[in-house]
Each structure stands twice: as C-alpha cells, then as structure tokens.
Input
Amino acid sequence: MYSMQAIGYVRSPYREPKDVPKGLGAKHEAEGALEILPEYAAGLADIEGFSHLYVLWLFDRAQGFELTASPPSDNRTHGVFATRSPRRPNAIGLTVVELLGREGSRLRVRGIDMLEGTPILDIKPYLSSIPAEKLRRGWLADAEERRGS
Amino acid sequence: MYSMQAIGYVRSPYREPKDVPKGLGAKHEAEGALEILPEYAAGLADIEGFSHLYVLWLFDRAQGFELTASPPSDNRTHGVFATRSPRRPNAIGLTVVELLGREGSRLRVRGIDMLEGTPILDIKPYLSSIPAEKLRRGWLADAEERRGS
Output
C-alpha cells in the first residue's frame, strides 16, 4: 500500500461526469487550469518551456472498480486495462494537456477532460510521441470502423 | 490521502538505478515483462490489440522528494514537475512501452526503463500522439542544442 496526496486541483468547466465529451470522435478542447498548492509551486520552475504536459490525477468520484468495462465508444466490454474507465484498481487518470500559460502556481491548459476539483497527483513534461503510423489501437479502431467514423 | 496498491510487478534487466540508460540520447529498447497478479488478470482482456501501452508504476526505491531536480541530461536544475526525476511528491513513474506479446497475465514489452521488481499501479491503452512538429521541449531542447546532439 502506497499513500498519495494531492499536489493541486483541476479547474474545469465540467461539473459532472455527463458533462465530459465521451465516445468515438469526442474532442477534448476544453480550457481550464491546474492550480498547484503553494507548497509545491517551486516544482513548476521551467515548466513553461514545454508545449504539452502529462497530468496524473485521481478519479476521486469513482466508486470501487471492475475488471471489465463497457466504454462509451463501444457496445462491447473489454478488460479495464484496455480502456480508460474510471473504475480501475488504482483510480489514476492520465491526460495530455497543452500548456497555454502560467501565472505563478496556476497553469492554464487546453484539453481538460477532468471534473472541477479533481485532485492532481503529478505533472510531467511530454517529451516525445509514438508516430501515428506505428500505432495499433485494437478494439477502438474496430469500433470506429463498425460505426464508419 | 489516497492508497494505491500494486497490480503486478515489472520484470526488467535493470537491477540498480545506474543500470538504466539515462541522459541525452538515451534509448529505451530493453525488453522485459509486466507480470500482472492473478486477481487482476481479467482486466487484460483485449489488450493485445494495442501496439503501445502506458504503464504507471511506483518509484519504490526513491526516498522522499525535492522540488528541484538536476536531470542527467542537463547540468542545470529545473522544477521537479518539468523533469522525470524519481524524487517527486507522489513517486509515480510513467513509461510508454511497445507490447510484443501476451502469455496469460504476462505482457512481454519493449521500452522498459524501470528496475526489476518495480510495482505496477496501472496500465492504459496508448490511443493517440501529439504530432512531433507541435511539441516544444523546453530545457531539454536547450540542453541538446548546447551539447550539439
């Protein structure tokens, strides 16, 4: 057992899970902020040089977990580790955001898909990408094909 | 405070931090495995359709944290959230691996940069990339330029 604690909180336009765009073709263009607690603010030095960040956060409103999940983008169930379901054994979320600006310990970002008040666990610089042509996307690609999207 | 527990462990060729390639131009081509505990194995259903996975894991041999870090790729210090330092407020590591194959609850992967026995917290499918031409990489790009690499 390992204990984690919030280093800050997400400011998001989404108040409830139903507000967050989901399913095939959902775009995450929402703007919001990452408000880092004053005691961790020194950890943000030089972060403004990066265009994109990984945000690790807590699905704090998810209850328990299940080993299979039915994602909104498919009508079939899949193993939870092959999905982004909130109901996971360790309820950690991962989002890539674009960094728009920084004012002190507040990072303005685009690409928010978390709820208002979500606890932030960590921020890391996004350093490199797997080229799109090297990616296989399993059931998600199949679901897109079936829907003709 | 939130409690996390291992869903499995990394099998890695690296026994000690000094064994892991670090610094500018370090390549992570090492092969290893993610061994998921039997009670979570059902969560792997359909994962073999994905070429790449995010692995969230615990820096279980890091002691405490500091808000600034001196990465091996630079001779300057930066805020910990602008680095991949193990000594972070929540000691979570994030690695993108290529999935080579699955035998039951064991995933063979390439791109290991964790130590042997590292606790795994979560696995997620890697669904999309930020195009390389859209990335700015802050101090890392500066350090590469200064070293002419």
Summary: The mean pLDDT of chain A is 92. Chain A touches chain B through 62 residues (CB under 8 Å).
